């Protein structure tokens, strides 16, 4: 028997991009959501992390990736899904460059390019990523962001 707070098969894996252009960071908001998030999404069964990131960003921006490099792993516990039980996710963050950032558009998502100062003006989820981005604490020296109870 499994708990409603523990996934039966272990943590989900997500791949998300820190997509920058002209000192701005790209954020995505689903049409039915109140909060913005980094572009990307969950890795599907049989899909590599890089392929998942390329697919997700392409679906969200209609632009291909020109460059990506691993940046950090974020441990997200009790990250609640709007349609189900609490989730446990390992979010892999990548430094990403779009092939044509000025062409980014979406009919399914709201896309917004924000400066560091702008990050304080929007609702951004998950909170652990929002805190790191707002405090400019993302560094190569600290690639693992564990969950603290």
Task: List the SSEs and their pairings.
Layout: E1 12-21, E2 24-30, E3 40-42, H1 49-61, E4 65-80, E5 86-98, E6 109-114, H2 127-134, E7 144-145
Parallel strand pairs: 1-5, 4-7
Antiparallel strand pairs: 1-2, 1-3, 2-6, 4-5
Supply the number of helical segments.
2
**Strand-residue fraction?**
35-45%
Helix- and strand-based class? mainly beta
User: What assembly state would you assign to the polypeptide chains in this entry?
Assistant: single chain
Explain what the structure shows.
- There is one protein chain.
- The chain has helices at residues 49-61, 127-134; strands spanning 12-21, 24-30, 40-42, 65-80, 86-98, 109-114, 144-145.
- It has 149 residues and is mainly β.
- Strand 4 (65-80) and strand 5 (86-98) form a beta hairpin.
- It starts with 11 loop residues before the first strand and ends with a strand.
